[in-house]
Amino acid sequence: MRCQGFQVVKGNFSRTFLRVGYHKIAEIPAGAQNISIRETIKSRNYLALQTQSSVSIINGNWVIDRPGTFTAAGTQLTYQRPNEIRSRTGESITAPGPLTEDLHVYLIYQQPGPSVYYEYSVPLQNTHPTPEPGPPSDILPLVETVGPPHPGEEVHQTDVTNNDIIKEKPHPNQVPSDPSMNSDARPTYTWTKTGHAECSTTCGTDSLATVPADLCDPALKPTNQEENCNTQSCPAYWDIGEWSECSRRCGPGTQHRQVICLQVTDVHANGTETSVTVVPELCGLSDRPVTKSTCQLKICSQWEIRSEWSPCSVPCGVGQRSREVVCVSNQGDVEEDEECNMNLKPETLQNCDMGVCARSWFTSLWSQRCSAECGQGNRTRTTVCLIDHVTDLPLDSCEGERPPEVTLCDSGPCQNRLEWYTGPWGQCSAECGNGTQTRSVACIFSNNVGMEVVDHLKCSSLSQPITAQLCRLKPCGVQWYVTEWSACSRSCNGGYRVREVRCLADNIVPSDSCDPSLIPESREECNKQPCLVETNPSCSDQYHNCMVVVQARLCIYPYYRHVCCTSCSRAHKTYPSSFQKNRIHR
């Protein structure tokens, strides 16, 4: 049984280049059935669907969904993405329909040269008899460049080549109504038995489904609409995958591909097939395609020696020499070393032995001045033993006698000359840490007869040598250091004084390693003698806080001396000079 009254709409979308992102390529209207959208060329692009109400169904918001079944717009949509290695077919989306709302078809562009074919059926909207379908017309699809579809987002139809916004056009896939038809005339549809249609496949189990029949009376619809046909098994075939990358970047290598034996078991009404893997014998082992092949991306670069060995880096002993080695392509261009086989690179550095180096004594020039300004003195020089003119060896490593480093010199007779003579330094004043040591100096008058000690004033025109200097025999380690005692807190009747005590290391850094049992006292009593106060009946303190008056030095004022007579008198006797000074200052 078949109900007439549907128009098949077909379209192709193909562009060479687009901007990376979402591009609207078609709109499928509500009521459409037998929907099929598929890539005709396998690519890294993706198909995406969105409802008219801006709800993403498949691959929305830059999230790529797994293949499967999705329910939306009143139908079930089947999203298929074949095996990326074995299959040569691209993505597809199919649905039986009918749709309850419009669907927008998008392409997520990532690879140049996309090609998408889509097809669906829509009910006829006029009463003219349906003509026999002719060759499919090339219907121009929508090409709308947008970002990832979001709910409520307003998009504009744009031309891919110049991205200028143009006015909204009628949907190119929409079948226009005939304006000459009477709007009141309504077509009449009836169920007609047309016999069995030709089986859609020659093998496998195929379900022959009827076309949509929304315009026929459902109450008169016959029960039998489909039956299986051609249930014999399909012949097995070899499914060939794509070649892998070459195993080597240059030179002869190998590449592999996967070859499996498949057999179609079911052919579905929407044109898709179900295949299973079977034993290779069913495909014929003699006809099995090769799975391994030789390949060569380019000719390998070779190492080239560009220079002879350089002279040895040392005149004697063991040194190094070098040469230039570069990686050269088959075109003669110098490339990075990584382009050549590093295991085969000729050596660029090599040790070289120039024989045993001679060891010789070297001396500096004699000093220009004699050590004595008159009479006999000495001149000096430095002697070293050198090997290969660089290394300083111990002095006993050279052959022969070591050259002398001191020689006598005579600065002429000493006549009527004044000189300072110094004695030896004395012992250090401290056994450890910093100390001082002294020596004696004498003014000597010398002539040809001899020398005599004279008064220091006669050598005053000469620079006098120092007679004392700091000395340090050894570090003392940590020890206690103290400051001077402070003044006593009271002049009589017992007070106290304090000092600061610290443990310091040799570098005057605080330490906690001193012996606590040897810590010096930091506080002691003082002025324990009793205070002698003259008894004067008319002199007494009239306030209890007269000590504050004394501390504030207010006793210089007559009023405070009267009301704090006793305290001010005691303070005057204890610190008379300070009291008088403040009084005069006031």
Low-confidence stretches: 126-145, 147-188, 207-211
The assigned structural class equals mainly beta
How many helical stretches? 4
Task: Identify the overall geometry.
Answer: elongated
Q: How much of the polypeptide forms β-strand, as a percent range?
A: 25-35%
CATH class identity of the largest domain: Mainly Beta
Compute the number of strand runs.
Answer: 37
Between the first and last Cα atoms, what is the distance in angstroms?
A: 133 Å
Q: What is the helical fraction, as a range of percent?
A: under 10%
CATH T-level fold name of the largest domain: Jelly Rolls
Mean pLDDT: 77
Tell me about the largest β-sheet. 6 strands, antiparallel
- Oligomeric state of the chains in view: single chain
Number of domains as seen in the coordinates:
7
Biggest sheet strand line-up: 1-10-3-8-7-6
- From the 3D coordinates, which CATH architecture of the largest domain would you assign? Sandwich
Evaluate the radius of gyration: 58 Å
If you had to describe this structure to a student in words, what would you say it looks like?
It is a single chain. Helices cover 5% and strands 31% of the residues. The chain has 4 helices and 37 strands. A 6-stranded antiparallel sheet has the order 1-10-3-8-7-6, with no helix packed on it. A hairpin with a 4-residue loop joins strand 31 and strand 32 (451-454). Helix 3 (565-574) packs across helix 4 (576-585).
